[in-house]
Amino acid sequence: MSNSSSLTQFLLLAFTDRRELQLLHFWLFLAISLAALLANGLILSAVAWDHHLHTPMGFFLLNLSLTDLGCICTTVPKAMHNSLWGTTTISYKGCAAQVFFFAFFMAAEYFLLTIMCYDRYVAICKPLHYGTLLGSRACAHMAAAAWATGFLNALLHTTSTFSLPLCQGNALGQFFCEIPHILKLSCSHSGYLREIGLLTISCLLGFGCFVFIMLSYVQIFRAVLRIPSQQGRHKAFSTCLPHLAVVSLFVSTATFAHLKPPSISSPSLDLVVSVLYSVVPPALNPLIYSLRNQELKDAIRKAMTGCFSEPKRWLFSSVNHS
What DSSP string describes 135-157? Predict the structure, then answer.
């Protein structure tokens, strides 16, 4: 028996006990994290430097890339460290920090996706009011509200979870610290119910956002189908489908991870599903958005060309001066 005051570390779930597979997981996570860092970094650079992307959608996409980078940097480095060194431990404070930042970035991302849906709704269903409803100040306020709500959500859940007395050991059935797995270690009935209540409120809020997104897309598709020209419909779909794909990936993986039937649950399946919703979406989001957005692809190409041409320009100018 142990309690939270005496706990100094938690034991994370290992991907495998075989050393060869541990190293394979390390290199796989390294490749995924580098791809995510590169892709999201290119989007950040493209949106920041290309004036064609200085739009509400570009602004929200920049914020979305920041949340993706935050999610990757919260869970993957510790998993890579444990796979490389063959350990499974994480300190008590490190676990609390991981819980806070993961909840913060995931909540902020979901609220940003909801705001981006509103952006698409106004652009297609109320184009004459777009400049009024989504001016620079309104966009800044909505983005700030998403980040602030994510911060408050993470603070409440982290404080509530780590104030519980833990007396069921310190082994977590997950490769990173997550609230449901920490709650299983609790021995306080009242504190457990308090956190469950907070989780229920968060789920209801998330479900409300999901309903808003679905209803908005019903209106969006009805408006798109009324567009007379095929080119106009194609352009409208091109701006909506990436966002809908990202929302679907985010919601479906997270929902399956937490609501899958106990009959099909197993440690190996739980690990795969947790990777699918915590690591894969942040890495795939930039690819999904850039596939059908020609302006974004052009801006990324310019950013990459500028990155590679700048060292050459500097080298040739140095040679000429010498």
Answer: -HHHHHHHHHHHHHHHHHHHHHH
pLDDT digits (tens, 9 = 90+) for 239-251: 788 888 888 888 8
Bridge partners, 89 (sequence order): 11
Task: Supply the pTM of this predicted model.
Answer: 0.86
* Cα 178 to Cα 322: distance, rounded to the nearest angstrom: 58
**From CA 303, how far away is CA 321, in angstroms rounded?**
27
- Ramachandran quadrant class, 169 (left: phi over 0; alpha: psi -120 to 50; beta: rest): left
* The token pair that represents 138 in the structure block: 């309104």
How far apart, in Å, do the first and last CA atoms of the chain sit?
Answer: 73
User: Which residue type, as a one-letter code, is found at position 216?
Assistant: S
- Tell the residue number behind the tokens 């997270």, with chain if given: 254
* Bridge partners, 37 (sequence order): none
User: Tokens representing 85?
Assistant: 């060194």
CB 283 within 8 A of CB 40: no
* CA distances to 63, 235, 274 from 150, in Å: 13, 32, 20
Q: Quick: pLDDT tens for 253-267.
A: 788 777 777 666 677
d(CA 46, CA 102) in angstroms, rounded, equals 26
Residue-wise pLDDT for 104-119, tens only, equals 999 999 999 999 999 9
